[in-house]
Amino acid sequence: MREVVAGAVIGDGRLLLAQRTYPTDVAGLWELPGGKVEAGETREQALRRELGEELGIEVRVGRQLGDPVPLRADLVLVALAADLIKGSPRPEEHSAVRWVETPELESMAARGELVPADAAWLDDLIELLAVR
Ligand code: 9L3
Ligand code: MG
To answer: Given ligand 1 and candidates 3, 4, 124, which is best to mutate, with the most ligand atoms within 8 Å of its CB?
Structure first.
């Protein structure tokens, strides 16, 4: 079973979302950025590496957020809460990034603008934003 880690990155009380460019069924939709855990890596190491490569930011990784979401028979998606500690996100692989507060996150979800897998975490994300 391979794992994909996604970061619920909080900075200044807002949540970071990144706009996907591929595959075509989710291109243009917004996600919690991240990627595949490589052999020998922990989830935390993988998330720190992916966020460095994709966005040039450093984060402190916290707890698991919500439940894992199955992507395929052999692939599962896990979200981890994280705090921005250094840098300002510059999209290397995404078409854009944005920082959102709860009302904006809720409207994006209602409009179907989040990738379907990540939309499963809406309530967990709202709770995370509420305690920051
Ligand atoms: N995926 C879904 N939600 C996310 C992330 C980071 C990834 N928040 C899915 C999209 C791809 C797979 O996981 O099918 C691998 O992700 P990537 O390596 O293309 O970012
Ligand atoms: Mg990625």
So the answer is: 4
